[in-house]
Design brief:
176 residues, mainly alpha, 4 domains, elongated
């Protein structure tokens, strides 16, 4: 930029530094400065948008609330933990985790499991409806009458048989 006229020299060191900087700038440097300035002004325009301004204020309020409760430290620790897990994970670990997830999905995502879940949910809703509609026994005699019904005895037998079967299976798995 040798075609630039000399800056007025007033003898101050700051003026001399300014003149030296102006002479040292190349066309590429000026272009980068203009681009950076333009990008900065675009950013300021976006920040002056009411929606963006509201979002930034909400974000800052959230970060302030997190800091006030100590949750910001917890959040940063969680981010550090996630990063450490990602760095520590080997290909073998990722492969085993993928295989485990695939096995779980294949075992649980079956038609039988879906039907069992649907039937269980419906049975629970029916039980809630039945318990809230029928008057519940309020005395020892009322409880005795409830226990003498065949469906009550069937349910108690089912619960006892289920509990015994679970105990047997648990002992067999434990090797006892």
């Amino acid at each position: 930029m040798s075609t630039m006229p000399p800056l007025p020299a007033n003898g101050s060191p700051l003026a001399d530094v300014g003149q030296a900087a102006a002479y040292a700038l190349t066309d590429g440097m000026v272009e980068r400065l203009v681009t950076t300035g333009s990008t900065g002004l675009e950013l300021l325009d976006r920040l002056n948008d009411p929606d963006t301004k509201a979002a930034i204020h909400r974000l800052l309020d959230g970060v302030t609330a997190l800091h006030g409760t100590g949750a910001l430290d917890t959040l940063m620790e969680m981010v550090s933990l996630a990063h450490a897990m990602r760095v520590a994970a080997t290909d073998s670990m990722v492969e085993r985790l993928t295989l485990f997830m695939e096995t779980m999905i294949n075992n649980l995502a079956t038609q039988e499991i879906a039907e069992l879940a649907r039937e269980t949910e419906q049975a629970l809703y029916d039980a809630v409806t039945s318990c809230s509609a029928d008057p519940q026994p309020t005395s020892l005699w009322g409880l005795w009458k409830q226990l003498s019904k065949p469906e009550t005895l069937q349910m108690l037998n089912l619960m006892v048989a289920f509990g015994n079967a679970m105990c047997r299976r648990s002992r067999a798995l434990a090797g006892k």
